[in-house]
Write a structure and sequence with these properties.
By secondary structure, the protein is mostly helical. The protein is 77% helix and 1% strand. A two-stranded antiparallel sheet has the order 1-2. The longest helix is centred in the first third of the chain and has 33 residues.
């Protein structure tokens, strides 16, 4: 296995970790104004992800940094071509981070409502646009011979990409509702269970529709490989398993099901691309691949040593964080605090 393939896999792993962990973060933020009827309840919901949200975003920063260093042409084409969409995501994430910090600075109900809705929009916009962006990458965009994106922002808002955006929005919301079911108690937990039961069927229908649409818009089912099959089966089976666990009230296993779906979806989409990183809709000769978009072998070698040294430490630290803050939260416990 060459270094280009190693780094393609590592970037896929980083995006899988990001969607898995930040996915429930987004879902909790989306549900905040609807599940929390009182200020104390909203405080509990925010505190459920309080120790984790900023650490979860590190996965995105690391994925972007790895993409920049390992495949600079991919990074340049993606971030210039998708500039407006990624700028909107950045603004939403900044708004979201500020909301976490500013909400508690004033007891005024209007002040807190402002930041609660900021958390909602700061979570919903990225949850939607990440799906749009990933679907466009898999479908292909207008890239010319000089590796430049020559389309427009509105070209990215095609029906296939929008379906991908709605799917990630609803799937992350389901994932977040399951996380809340495991993390909070009392009446809030009951409400989270109601959301889980309501969302599972629409998410499953959207996922199946996206797979069917992918057969028309992409080469997902051409040259099926073992990893493609694993990704497809895992994504569908994960959702079906989630449904079975929801209706038998085994919510921990249901959360595992959505986690399997998210990871399997990343496997399926990345291996639909491989060895490309961004297909061109103008000419196959203009496709960006792991070879024509990569850094030098020396750069990749140095990065590999650093990555395999540092990443295990980060994983151990994050696992420790989840262990320390594993306690279930209730309105009563937060009021006591």
């Amino acid at each position: 296995m060459d270094l280009q393939t190693v780094w393609f896999i590592l970037i896929a792993v980083l995006f899988a970790g990001f969607f898995l962990l930040e996915g429930y973060d987004y879902g909790v933020g989306i549900l905040l104004p609807f599940l929390g009827k009182k200020d104390a309840e909203r405080r509990v919901i925010i505190n459920a992800i309080g120790p984790f949200w900023d650490g979860n975003e590190v996965w995105l920063l690391t994925a972007g940094g790895a993409m920049f260093a390992a495949f600079p042409h991919w990074y340049a084409t993606l971030f210039s071509g998708f500039y407006l969409a990624l700028f909107l995501i950045l603004i939403a994430l900044i708004l979201r981070g500020v909301a976490f910090e500013f909400r508690s600075k004033d007891d005024n109900p209007r002040w807190r409502a402002l930041w609660d809705w900021s958390l909602f929009f700061g979570s919903a916009v990225p949850a939607l646009l990440w799906g749009v962006a990933v679907a466009n990458i898999v479908r292909g965009v207008a890239i010319d011979a000089d590796m430049n994106f020559v389309g427009s922002f509105f070209d990215l808002l095609n029906p296939y990409a929008l379906l991908g955006g709605v799917l990630t929005l609803t799937l992350f919301t389901l994932h977040g509702a399951l996380f809340l079911e495991l993390k909070i108690g009392g009446e809030l937990r009951t409400r989270a269970q109601g959301v889980v039961k309501m969302l599972w069927l629409p998410v499953t229908v959207l996922a199946l529709a996206f797979v069917g649409y992918s057969a028309l818009e992409t080469d997902m089912f051409a040259n099926l490989t073992v990893l493609k099959v694993v990704g497809l089966v895992g994504a569908v089976a994960g959702l079906l398993f989630t449904g079975a666990m929801i209706f038998t009230k085994r919510y921990g296993r249901a959360f595992l099901g959505t986690a399997i779906t998210l990871i399997s979806t990343v496997i399926l989409l990345f291996w639909t691309l491989f060895p490309r990183v961004m297909p061109s809709t103008l000419d196959e000769a203009f496709d960006l691949t792991i070879y024509n978009a990569s850094s030098s072998d020396y750069t990749l070698s140095v990065m590999t040593v650093i990555a395999f040294t540092v990443v295990p430490i980060v994983l151990i630290y994050q696992a420790w964080t989840y262990r320390v803050f594993r306690k279930r939260l209730t309105v009563e416990s937060e009021l006591e605090y």
